[in-house]
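Q: Second attempt. The first request was missing the SMILES, so the protein and zinc ion are both included now.
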Amino acid sequence: MNLLIRNGTVVSSRGERFENVLVKDGVIWSVGLNVSCDDAKVIDATGCLVLPGGIDPHTHMELPQMGTVSSDTFTTGSIAALCGGTTTIIDFANQIRGESLRETIVRSLGQAKNKTHCDYAFHVAITDGSESSLRDIEWLMTEHGVTSFKTFLAYEALMLTEQQFRAVLRLVGKAHGIVTLHAEVGAIIKKNIAEALASGNCSPRFHRATHSVEAEAQATMLGLQWAAEEGCPLYVVHVSNAQAMQHILDAKMKGQKVFAETCPQYLLLDESLYEQDFDEAKKFVMSPPLRSAADRAMLWSALANDSVDTVGTDHCPFLLSQKDAGRNNFCKIPNGAPGIEERMSLLYSEGVAKGGMTLAQFRNVTSTRAAEIFGLAPKKGDVAVGGDADLVVFDPNCRWRILAKKQHMNVDYSCYEGYEVCGKTRDVVLRGNVVVRDGNPVLNKPLGQYLKRRIFS
Ligand SMILES: [Zn+2]
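A: Got both inputs this time. The predicted holo structure:
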């Protein structure tokens, strides 16, 4: 069926223009002022922006952690994604030590298949750095289009040694992939935690204190240095503070292939939230933790001068009852918070509407750059002829209030409860299918497809 979106302002890599978009067979057929079609279903986008479908490069559906599992399934999380204007997620296939990377991807594909309502891909997180494990990297790239690999320098069950991390960089670089890094130095955090607990400091504020700026900044610096030496592009996930961002800016200045992701929570919230009672503070326990107001300001300025490449969410929700596991010890609070549904609205409201970023920058960090970096372009990430018809009709003037009881994410709180925001996703099209209408999901069978990705170029 043909679909015509008319009278909207199309936000694409060609700029912002008042034009119509015609969709045929799931792809964008033509875009222009005079484009029309007699036998098309019509969406009137008067007063609205027509954006490329959002791409969230950092989500964790059904993630096992600390003896529990993140509360959004691929089904609930992907419906929430669509309602918030995100049509593609890149989730994580986390290797469980003892299993091969082949087993990891097969298990993860099985988990998401026939359940996911938006399109999806996986970064593969390598937690076993042995030679035999790393042998499958090339196979993952050619067979499954997995072109990005996540690494950790912290957390016992996840971290690689320097030698293993360098080996990953070398192999992935040679195969024209990209390595992503969770930048925290495990030894620093471990020492801080031991000291805090020995002093009886068990409340959530010590989650922040132990996961220090120093731990993040140092891992960022080391990761950049090693990536440069091994010849591999590096993407630093969830940059939360000014020092780490400064290391990335310096590397960019030198011409290194490095990319920075931050998240709405590091732009909008800060560490003062940990000074509340346990029942409030627990909501914000995530790694890295929320930082200072000065860090926030620096991240906004990095966004404004195009130094931040993407704004992902690190969406990893846990119910309040799951968070209670750490009532007597902050180390036992599952790490993570919800955010996939509000990403576009929050960033539009706090960024574009308040004058801190342009529409082009908004498009870049919510969609275009992720598509380019992770090999989803030119099908995804733009409103361009020949691309997948993933489109968002976004009402920039709609004012609304964020309330947990109204969200689609399977979690019983919001980090932004009561926030009044300006800008809301109205209709969403996934490869030509209307999947959200007037803010409500149109529930059919899950239409999400697994996306094989191109190599890094
Ligand atoms: Zn994450």
